[in-house]
Amino acid sequence: MSFINKFGKTTVAGSILAASLLGTSQISFASSPGAGPEEQQQDNGAIAFGNTENPKNVIFMVGDGMGPSFNTAYRYYKNQQGAKTLTPTAFDAYLKGTNRTYPNDPKQNVTDSAAGGTAFATGHKTYNGAISVDTDKKPVKSVLEQAKEDGKSTGVVTTAEVTDATPAVYAAHVDSRDKKDEIAQQFYNDKINGQHKIDVLLGGGSKYFGKENGDLDNKFQQDGYDYVTNKDELANSQNDHVLGLFSEKDMPLQIDAPQQNPLLVDMENSALSKLEKNDKGFFLMVEGASIDKAAHPNDITGVMSEMGGFEKAFQNAIDYANTHKDTLVVATADHSTGGLSVAKGKDYEWNTEPIHAMKHSGSYMTKQIVDGKDPEQVINEGYGIKVSEDDMKQIKENAKKVQDVKKEVKDEKDPKLAEATTNLQNAIQKPINDASNTGWTTNGHTGVDVNTYAYGPGADKFAGNMENTQSAKNIFDFFANDVASQQNQ
């Protein structure tokens, strides 16, 4: 059993007062004045057909925790060390504006993923920990639910548990993000027009769909869904309705993942191939969730790995939109994580070469050591640079403390074990952060504005500095004005 549980991360939902389970309250609707037509940013000459005035299809991408410094760091990372001119990343040409991320929370003014996700999924700001409920704990409609009401196909793709905050806000309504069993049950039980809300659901979190939570995986299969658990099964699925769960909890970081695991771009491609068959269009949410998962423990190796995976998925979505002119692609973040700085201290340099040399993420090495493997062996196998004797000594001492605490506690969520694990993680991260000159300010979130990238019909609606709720309001309006889709009804 792994004793790692969100290193160094304070669960915001834990501080929220318990409330009764949600009833059958009416879902409210947020919208804004109608969106007008928009010309394409660029024309690559591809032959394409469809609604080019207003998007019929929307691919909404979330780089969880991807603050502006992450995009800057990734640009450095992709270029040769010391380059005088940096080649742009796939994101750069599509920058439209920034989003303000603050929640509507009585105690905190920096958002978590639940409140941030609720904002851009529903158009409502709410308290930290809330899954598509307002501050009165009443359900608020998501853009995915609106798409399903309109007869469109729907998909959710993530590298996290599919019951995690960002995917959950699109098809569940609970007062606390910690209620993952209930979120999974709502995915199955709650329907629109007699249909499950999500046609293609791909990510981690199989533990919430098994025997301990009502055999939901079997129930989905009985309702006509394919159930797949690895890359080959996903590739061979011919069904338009798929539940794909590729790990018990969060999916491994890309740098550490086994070959049988699909990458984010693989899951995205599979979803697109199924959703595009609907003449009325589709809504697809694609989350690079593990940018955030790596940033919480200040794991620069994991962050750059996940930024690479998210970039591939983003470029793939842009390529799709280039040949399907009725498709809008939007990419943004719910917040920034870790307070990443490109260089630290007095030195005017950020060195990416040590990061490129790494064989595994710090998070992976931490888990290996916590699970009882020899610390020196794990570090030698995972590090691509030499670790000093002093740093190795600190790692070994913290590893011993973790094992001592494990003997004392009965619960992997015990605060003593969480603290010991965080100290071990910090010791493991120190050599690569020092070698690369990477700075961090926190193991939590920061309140900075985040970048928004967009391409396709309606992209200009995301220009400028705006509230994160405006993303949902724009999409609601796009669907309301989707004449081509309405003609197919």
From TrEMBL:
Residues where Zn(2+) binds: 64, 292, 296, 334-335, 445
Enzyme class, spelled out: hydrolase
Family matches, as Pfam families: Alk_phosphatase (PF00245)
Named cofactor requirement(s): Mg(2+); Zn(2+)
Gene3D superfamilies: 1.10.60.40, Alkaline Phosphatase, subunit A
Gene Ontology molecular-function annotations: alkaline phosphatase activity; metal ion binding
Protein name (database record): Alkaline phosphatase
Active site: 113 (phosphoserine intermediate)
Keywords associated with the record: Coiled coil, Hydrolase, Magnesium, Metal-binding, Phosphoprotein, Signal, Zinc
Cofactor details (free text): Binds 1 Mg(2+) ion. Binds 2 Zn(2+) ions.
Enzyme Commission number, as recorded: 3.1.3.1
Signal peptide, first to last residue: 1-30
Entry annotated with the keyword Ribonucleoprotein: no
Origin: domain of life: Bacteria
Keyword check for Zinc: yes
Species in which this protein is naturally found: Staphylococcus petrasii
Entry binding sites for Mg(2+): 64, 164, 166, 287
InterPro entries reported in the protein's UniProt record: Alkaline_phosphatase, Alkaline_phosphatase_AS, Alkaline_phosphatase_core_sf
Ranges in a coiled coil: 385-412
Annotated family: Belongs to the alkaline phosphatase family.
